[in-house]
Write a structure and sequence with these properties.
This is S-protein homolog. InterPro entries: At4g14100-like. The chain has 160 residues and is mainly beta. The chain has no helices and eleven strands.
């Protein structure tokens, strides 16, 4: 699955984001909220210095994920990803590019953060967030008050 270095979530949800409460376990650390089975989010990404607006549609029941990337002063790139590991990336401009990729994993399951290491609370873009690390690959920031994702940082060898 293609992931950016980092991105900030600006949610316009459909259906509304309703965090699930996980079963209480013997821990004082908070548990990351599973994603809703279907949602739409608008994100602003800063990837290798270039800004882009990305609309994400996550559809776990149908095992698909769509993202539309509008690059700043650039073209619009569409990405469709399926649970079977097949992904299509294409444009609808005059070049009509299309790339097919196969990845050994499919889309993220709603509880993909299970087993993540709790790192404490930090402020990010004005939000007080709980922060988790998942297998030294991603730092995931979730708003303490609403349990909505605020920020992701994918591991690139540099400290946050």
């Amino acid at each position: 699955m293609y992931f950016p270095i980092n991105f900030i979530f600006l949610f316009t949800l459909s259906p509304f984001w309703v965090p699930s409460k996980a079963l209480e376990i013997d821990s004082t650390d908070p548990i990351p909220s599973p994603w809703p089975h279907q949602f739409h989010a608008t994100t602003i990404m800063n990837y290798t210095g270039g800004l882009r607006k990305v609309d994400l549609w996550y559809d776990w029941p149908n095992k698909r994920y769509l993202h539309i990337n509008q690059y700043q002063l650039g073209k619009k790139l569409y990405g469709v990803e399926w649970q079977n590991g097949t992904s299509f990336y294409f444009t609808l401009d005059s070049t009509e590019e299309c790339t097919i990729r196969h990845f050994p994993v499919g889309i993220l399951r709603p509880n993909w953060l299970e087993g993540a290491n709790y790192m404490g609370q930090r402020y990010k873009d004005g939000f007080l967030c709980n922060v988790w690390d998942k297998i030294d690959f991603i730092h995931y920031y979730e708003d303490v008050a609403t349990q909505i994702p605020v920020y992701w940082h994918f591991y690139d060898g540099m400290p946050i």
